[in-house]
Design goal:
Number of strands: 5
Helix content: 10-25%
Strand content: 15-25%
Distance between the termini: 36 Å
Order of helices and strands: HEEEHEE
Structural class: alpha+beta
Largest sheet: 5 strands, antiparallel
């Protein structure tokens, strides 16, 4: 598989790690859109939100138990945004489900 995030998780491509356990890997985005911008990915490859199903939904649910811990460790006390892009039209450039944690400043409304 030629997946950028799978290569980051395996250590084949270096990253600036924020958090890791047996199911999740989190690292700083190389092109941050906010003062704090971290990507959280499952170690198990799932193409995207549109590929979540009964067999892999527990991986995504687990990520959402880890995100608040990561945000707290980053000092995001005033709040943060969690974003996942789905498909090319939404800007998903890597087909491995991932969640952006954005914070460190007032982000304003999205919609």
């Amino acid at each position: 598989m030629d997946c950028l995030f799978c290569k980051i998780v395996s250590g084949e491509i270096p990253s600036k790690k924020v958090y890791e356990d047996d199911r999740v890997y989190a690292f700083y985005d190389i092109a941050p859109a906010a003062p704090t911008h971290v990507l959280v990915v499952p170690k198990k490859h799932i193409d995207g939100v549109d590929a979540v199903n009964a067999e892999n939904a527990s991986e995504v649910a687990y990520i959402f138990t880890v995100i608040p811990k990561i945000a707290e460790s980053l000092g995001l006390k005033g709040g943060y945004r969690v974003v996942s892009n789905v498909g090319a039209d939404a800007g998903q450039t890597v087909r491995h489900i991932h969640f952006h944690i954005l914070g460190g400043k007032e982000l304003g409304r999205m919609c």
